């Protein structure tokens, strides 16, 4: 056998041999992620089959699907489902529109763009609790600056109790959420805008397309891949948000802002029904998985039709 044939045979044998080194290098991180993520999820699902309370956590009684049967007849659960979807859709839409508008602005060249970009990131850098405390004072019915400004310009006649009014609490929560997370959407969309070739805009201008036509036929198709990730990320963040809602309204008034995450927390720690809270959390997990799967399939079909 010639030298070249031997080298080719050795190379073919090496290719057939599985390299375990990457597996051993990734194994510690994989085990850590399994312990921190998979185990709590499995433990929570198992806990949902027991009638467990805080005082008898170690002596929980197995009740099978009783907790899930209660979900279907629990009006508070269905109210939380409705509030969760309204809050998720509204905050996602407002956050996306704000992020897109500021991303289009910062994608232009003008003096001080770097400074303005840094200032726009500040709401995202502020901890959620700090942002909530700021807005709680701003939305205060007696001393809030927002009521003062609206009364001064004549939009309202008297101060509004934003966080104590059932009809205003959820819009106020959406406002704070959109303000706090629009910088994330802005950065992601700005990165997507900078990947669109300038030649496409130049070609559209040569064809006589105006600014709106360029936005519809060049900008938005160029952001399709970014939009996939961003929209799903914003919705998932809204569905699982706890800190901001709990610190701002606690789910009130009259459960007007009680999402599934807040209902899970209140059921577990206020009403001390750990097993039923685990069932609510499992239902939320299933909703997120189903939503993500439907969204992913719809995007694949849209990609196949193009």
What does the model show?
The chain has 306 residues and is mostly helical. Helix content is 73%, strand content 1%. It has 14 helices and 2 strands. It has helices at residues 3-16, 21-47, 66-73, 75-106, 113-125, 128-138, 145-152, 169-193, 198-206, 211-222, 224-239, 243-248, 260-270, 274-305, and strands spanning 50-51, 61-62. Strands 1-2 form a two-stranded antiparallel sheet. Helix 2 crosses helix 14, helix 4 (75-106) runs antiparallel to helix 11 (224-239) and helix 5 crosses helix 8 (169-193). The protein is globular.
State the gist of this model.
With 306 residues, the protein is an all-alpha fold. It has helices at 3-16, 21-47, 66-73, 75-106, 113-125, 128-138, 145-152, 169-193, 198-206, 211-222, 224-239, 243-248, 260-270, 274-305; strands at 50-51, 61-62.
Can you lay out the helices and strands and say which pair or pack?
Blueprint (H helix, E strand, L loop, with lengths): L2 H14 L4 H27 L2 E2 L9 E2 L3 H8 L1 H32 L6 H13 L2 H11 L6 H8 L16 H25 L4 H9 L4 H12 L1 H16 L3 H6 L11 H11 L3 H32 L1
Antiparallel strand pairs: 1-2
Helix pairs in contact: 2-14, 4-8, 4-11, 5-8, 8-11, 11-14, 13-14
Strand content: under 5%
Radius of gyration: 26 Å
* Sheet with the most strands, sense and barrel status: 2 strands, antiparallel
Poorly predicted ranges? none
Q: Compute the number of helices.
A: 14
Structural class: mainly alpha
Q: How far is the N terminus from the C terminus? A: 53 Å
Query: Please, what is the average pLDDT?
Result: 84
What topology, given as strand order, has the largest sheet?
1-2
Mass-distribution shape? globular
Indicate the percent of residues in helices. Answer: over 70%
Count the beta strands.
2
Spell the H/E element sequence. Answer: HHEEHHHHHHHHHHHH
């Amino acid at each position: 056998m010639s030298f070249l044939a031997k080298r080719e045979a050795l190379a073919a044998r090496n290719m057939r041999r599985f390299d375990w080194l990457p597996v051993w290098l990734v194994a510690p991180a994989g085990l850590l992620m399994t312990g921190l993520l998979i185990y709590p999820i499995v433990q929570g699902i198992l806990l949902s089959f027991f009638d467990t309370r805080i005082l008898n956590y170690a002596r929980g009684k197995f009740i099978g699907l009783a907790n899930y049967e209660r979900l279907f007849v629990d009006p508070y659960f269905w109210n939380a489902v409705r509030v969760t979807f309204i809050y998720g859709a509204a905050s996602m839409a407002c956050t996306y529109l704000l992020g897109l508008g500021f991303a289009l602005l910062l994608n232009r060249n003008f003096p001080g763009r770097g400074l303005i970009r840094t200032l726009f990131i500040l709401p995202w850098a502020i901890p959620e609790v700090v942002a909530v405390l700021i807005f709680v004072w701003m939305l205060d019915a007696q001393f809030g600056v927002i009521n003062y400004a609206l009364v001064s310009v004549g939009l309202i006649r008297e101060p509004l109790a934003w966080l104590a009014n059932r009809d205003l609490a959820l819009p106020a929560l959406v406002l704070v959420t959109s303000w706090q997370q629009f910088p994330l959407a802005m950065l992601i969309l700005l990165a997507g805008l900078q990947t669109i070739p300038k030649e496409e805009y130049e070609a559209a201008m040569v064809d006589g397309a105006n600014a709106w036509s360029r936005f519809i036929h060049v900008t938005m198709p160029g952001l399709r891949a970014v939009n996939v990730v961003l929209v799903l990320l914003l919705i998932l963040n809204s569905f699982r948000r706890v800190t901001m809602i709990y610190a701002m309204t606690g789910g009130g008034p009259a459960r007007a802002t009680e999402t599934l995450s807040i209902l899970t927390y209140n059921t577990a720690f206020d009403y001390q029904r750990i097993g039923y809270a685990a069932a609510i959390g499992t239902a939320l997990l299933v909703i997120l998985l189903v939503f993500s799967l439907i969204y992913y399939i719809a995007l694949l079909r849209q990609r196949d039709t193009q």
